[in-house]
Design brief:
Blueprint lengths: L1 H61 L4 H11 L4 H29 L4 H11 L2 H4 L4 H6 L3 H22 L8 H24 L8 H35 L2 H38 L1 H28 L1 H9 L7 H7 L2 H7 L1 H9 L3 H50 L8 H21 L5 H18 L5 H11 L5
Helix pairs in contact: 1-3, 1-4, 1-7, 1-9, 1-10, 1-19, 2-3, 2-9, 2-10, 3-4, 4-8, 7-8, 9-10, 9-16, 10-13, 10-14, 10-15, 10-16, 11-14, 11-15, 11-17, 12-13, 13-16, 14-16, 15-16, 17-18
Length: 479
C-alpha cells in the first residue's frame, strides 16, 4: 500500500503542478480579458458579449454530449485501444458539432434580439467546430497534463493579445473572431504532439463502439448541460428579462467567482483518472484519499469565501472601477459558491469513478431545475440579487444530493473540518473588517492568509496524521 500511495501521490502532485502552472496563467490572462472587455465596452456592451457566450455554451455541450468525460475515463482504463477510441469519439463529435451549429443558427434567427446581438451569437458559434478536435480529454486520460495547461495558457494569451492590439469600443463583432482564432492557434502544439506520438486521426464509424459510447456518455452529457444551466441560465434569463446592462453588472461579479471555481475544474481533471483507478483497486485507499481531499478543499474554500465577501467592495473597484459598484452585493452572495463547489469535489469524483453517472446527473439536474425555477420567481423582483440567490441555493442543493448519494458508497466526514475552517476564517474575518479600506487589496489578502494559517495551526486544524500522510504519499525522507 505504501508503494501505491507513493507512486499515485507523486503522479497526482506532478500532474497537478503541470496543469496548475498552465491553467493559473490561463485563468489570469482570461480574467484580464474580462476586465479589459468590461472596462472598454461598459456594462451594456460587456453584457452583449457575455450573453452571446452564454447562449453558445449550451451548443458547445450538445456538440460533446458527455463524450469527453466518457473518453477520459475509458482512456485511463484501456490499454492498446486508445487510438481507436480517439478516432471514433472525434468522428462522433464532428457529426454532433454540425448538428449543434445548425440548431444554434435556427434558434438565433428566430430570437427576439437586435441584429448585432444575433451576429455576435452566430460568430461565437463558429468556435464549436475547432473544439471537436481538441484532445484535452485524451491527454487527461493518459495523465499528460502539461500539454493541457500549455494549450489553455496559449488560448488565453493569444486572445488577450488580439484584444489589446486590435479591439476598440465599436468593434464588438470582432471579439468572437479573435476568440476563434486564438482557439485554433492554441490547439496546434497539442495536435502536433498527438500526431507525433499516435499518427493522424482517422474518421471511424464502429457501430458497437458508437452505441456503447453514446449510452454511457449521455448521462455525463446531460449532467454537463445541467451544470451549465445552474452556472449560466441566470445570465441568459437576465439578458431576456432585464437587458444587457444587467448581464454585464452581474457577470462582473460572477467572473471573479468563476476564476476561483476554475481551480475546482483543474482538481477534477487531474484526479478523475487516478480516482477511477484507485476505486477499482482498493476501497481503503479511495476512502483515505477522498477524506483528505475533502479536508483540503474545505480548508481552502471557507477562508476564500469569507475573505471575498468582506473585501468584495475593494475587489470590484480595483478590477472594474466605480461604474460597477452595483456588482458588489451579487459578489458577496455568489462568493459562497466557492465553498459549495469545492466541498462537492470528492463526492462528484466518487460517483463518476464508481460508474454512478446517473446519480451524478440527478444531483446536478436538481440544481438546474431549482435554479431555473428560482430565477423565474426572483429575477423579475430582485434583478441581480435574485439571480445571485438562485445560483447559491442551487449550489447547496447539488452538494446535498451528491453527499447523500455518496454516503451509499463511502462516508466522508465534513462537519469537524467545516467547524475548524469557519473558526479560523471568523478570526481572519474580524481582522479584515477592522482593516477594510485601511490597506490596499493585496496587503489585505496577504494579512488574511497569514492570520488564517496561524489560527488553523493553533486550533490544530492540521495535525501530525495529516503531515504523515503527505510525507508517505510523496515519499519524503527525513533529514
Amino acid at each position: 500500500m505504501k508503494e501505491d500511495i507513493s507512486s499515485t501521490g507523486k503522479k497526482i502532485v506532478k500532474n497537478l503542478f503541470l496543469l496548475i502552472t498552465g491553467n493559473v496563467a490561463a485563468q489570469l490572462l482570461g480574467f484580464l480579458s474580462v476586465i479589459y472587455l468590461a472596462r472598454i465596452l461598459k456594462a451594456d456592451g460587456f453584457g452583449k458579449v457575455v450573453f452571446a457566450q452564454g447562449i453558445v455554451a449550451y451548443f458547445f455541450l450538445f456538440s460533446d454530449l458527455g463524450l469527453k468525460t466518457f473518453g477520459t475515463i475509458e482512456i485511463a482504463r484501456v490499454k492498446g485501444e486508445q487510438k481507436r477510441y480517439v478516432n471514433n469519439i472525434v468522428t462522433m463529435r464532428i457529426a454532433l458539432s454540425i448538428a449543434a451549429f445548425l440548431m444554434l443558427l435556427l434558434i438565433t434567427l428566430l430570437m427576439d434580439k437586435p441584429q448585432d446581438q444575433k451576429y455576435l451569437i452566430i460568430l461565437f458559434g463558429i468556435s464549436i467546430f475547432p473544439s471537436t478536435i481538441l484532445l484535452d480529454w485524451f491527454f487527461q486520460g493518459i495523465q499528460k497534463m502539461g500539454i493541457i495547461g500549455l494549450t489553455n495558457m496559449l488560448k488565453s494569451l493569444f486572445y488577450i493579445t488580439l484584444l489589446l492590439l486590435f479591439l476598440s469600443s465599436g468593434d464588438i463583432l470582432y471579439i468572437p473572431i479573435y476568440f476563434t482564432v486564438s482557439f485554433i492557434l492554441a490547439m496546434v502544439p497539442m495536435f502536433l504532439t498527438f500526431f507525433r506520438e499516435h499518427g493522424w486521426i482517422v474518421p471511424s464509424f464502429e457501430y458497437t463502439l458508437w452505441k456503447e459510447s453514446i449510452i454511457k456518455a449521455i448521462p455525463l452529457g446531460l449532467s454537463s448541460i445541467m451544470i451549465q444551466i445552474y452556472y449560466n441560465i441566470d445570465t441568459v434569463m437576465l439578458g431576456f428579462m432585464k437587458g444587457e446592462e444587467a448581464v454585464g453588472l452581474y457577470n462582473a461579479a460572477y467572473k471573479i467567482v468563476l476564476l476561483l471555481l476554475g481551480f475546482a475544474s483543474i482538481i477534477g481533471m487531474v484526479l478523475l483518472p487516478n480516482v477511477s483507478k484507485i476505486y477499482t483497486e482498493s476501497k481503503e485507499n479511495i476512502e483515505k484519499y477522498l477524506r483528505y481531499l475533502s479536508k483540503i478543499t474545505i480548508f481552502w474554500s471557507i477562508p476564500v469565501t469569507v475573505g471575498g465577501m468582506i473585501l468584495s467592495g475593494q475587489i470590484i473597484r480595483v478590477f472594474y472601477g466605480e461604474y460597477y459598484n452595483n456588482s458588489v452585493i451579487p459578489l458577496q452572495i455568489l462568493i459562497w459558491s466557492v465553498f459549495t463547489v469545492f466541498s462537492n469535489i470528492p463526492f462528484a469524483l466518487l460517483l463518476l469513478a464508481s460508474g454512478k453517472g446517473k446519480e451524478y446527473m440527478y444531483s446536478v439536474t436538481a440544481g438546474a431545475v431549482s435554479n431555473l425555477s428560482l430565477n423565474l420567481f426572483l429575477i423579475p423582483r430582485y434583478d441581480l440579487i435574485g439571480a445571485s440567490i438562485s445560483t447559491l441555493i442551487s449550489e447547496f442543493i447539488v452538494l446535498t444530493f451528491l453527499l447523500l448519494y455518496s454516503r451509499r458508497l463511502i462516508i466522508i466526514p465534513m462537519f469537524r473540518n467545516i467547524l475548524l475552517g469557519l473558526t479560523a476564517s471568523s478570526i481572519m474575518g474580524i481582522l479584515l473588517l477592522n482593516l477594510n479600506d485601511k490597506f490596499n487589496l493585496l496587503i489585505s489578502i496577504l494579512l488574511g492568509i497569514l492570520i488564517y494559517i496561524l489560527t488553523l495551526i493553533i486550533i490544530k486544524g492540521v495535525n501530525k496524521e495529516d503531515l504523515v500522510f503527505i510525507r508517505e504519499a510523496l515519499k519524503i525522507k527525513g533529514s
